[in-house]
Amino acid sequence: MLLGSFSYGGEFTYDFSVSGGQSGGDSYTEAQLGLNYFAQKWLAWRNALFARFPSIGSSSYGLDSSGRSYWTVDFSERSFLVSFLGSGIRFSSLGENHVFLEGGFTLHLASLTLGIGAKGFLGTDDVQYFLVLAGGGKF
Question: What is the pTM of this model?
């Protein structure tokens, strides 16, 4: 999700995140390791391995695959605001695959990223809210 001032078209970035949410009245913590392919500055295909640890019940693991649109406002070469919106599908080890919608905002200040966002899983009462305090990179 780190966009920065680099050339686009075939760029890969990576990130790691931890978030929390609630599903059916049960809270959980989730960790993700994501790989993003930017076909354009405003369009990325994101694949993220996840591990979800509920306070009650079985842990689950799997893959989130989504398409995201990005809008960027540059303040300087290394400082910018990004909003994103996307949809995708979650493939879970519990056999419960769900379509999701997600969106949020991130503020990039040099190598620090701060942000907020939400991900809702269609057909469930599962909404995940996340705060971003991160670093990441590109290759």
Answer: 0.83
